[in-house]
Write a structure and sequence with these properties.
single chain; mainly beta; 233 residues; ten-stranded antiparallel β-sheet; 15 strands; three-stranded antiparallel β-sheet
Length: 233
């Protein structure tokens, strides 16, 4: 076999290998600029029990978040979009890989989020329906490859061409009250409260008028603002 041919094959394989991985050092913009909200209703708090890019485990070398939701807990859409797949036929005691109940939603920029391990009969939306951000789309469970651990597996993809781990992209959330790592990503083992998405999030310096009450959270950098209006008479 000619040396040049061998080199070309090696170069092609190297390029394919380089493409087939995520960059775990990705830096996200501030969550104040995120188009996504947490996948559960305002006021709810859950812990991330498996985060992005751990050294070992199901999320190794990929972006995905597992939240410790319980069976029957409400899951909401992180972003408005079109439901492209929904299934809920598998029992919560069926822990067979591939037997996950899911909802997949595609957004207007082509990105897709999967909401996985829903409970049996727990899909609240159907394929080809449009959902609003924050709309209830399913009920959490433990279907499929969970080992019986109730949780929500949340994973975003750059497009719908592949739902392989190498096509995953990282997320942060505009309404999350909780710590971030130095890449502006949620942290494994930490708790995150979903704030009302209509509240204002301020990152950086803020000049506060006298009729505003400010409630800063140093851990997350999020400031909740309450405006008191006095109309007089």
């Amino acid at each position: 076999m000619p040396i040049r041919y061998i080199f070309c094959v090696f170069l092609l394989l190297s390029v394919l290998s380089a493409e087939a991985q995520v960059n775990c050092d990705t830096m996200l913009p501030s969550p104040a600029n995120s188009q996504y909200v947490l996948p559960y209703p305002a006021g709810k708090t859950y812990k991330i029990i498996q985060g992005n890019c751990p050294a070992v485990g199901g999320h190794a070398n990929t972006f995905a978040l597992d939240f410790n939701t319980l069976t029957g807990d409400t899951i909401v859409a992180c972003r408005a979009g079109l439901v492209i797949w929904a299934n809920d036929q598998y029992a919560d005691t069926d822990w067979t890989s591939g037997h996950e109940n899911n909802v997949f939603i595609r957004h207007n920029d082509g990105t897709v989020i999967r909401y996985t391990h829903l409970t049996q009969n727990g899909a609240l939306v159907s394929a080809n329906s449009f959902v609003a951000q924050g709309q209830a789309i399913g009920l959490s469970g433990s279907s499929g490859n969970t080992g019986g651990v109730q949780h929500l597996h949340l994973q975003a993809f750059r497009d719908g061409t592949s739902y392989d781990k190498w096509n995953a992209i990282p997320l942060n959330f505009s309404n999350a009250d909780g710590p971030l790592d130095d890449q502006n990503m949620p942290v494994n083992g930490q708790f995150y409260t979903a704030l009302d998405s209509n509240l204002v999030s301020v990152h950086g310096h803020l000049d506060v008028p006298a009729n505003l009450r400010v409630f800063p959270n140093p851990a997350s950098g999020i400031v909740q603002i309450v405006l008191h209006l006095h109309t007089g008479s």
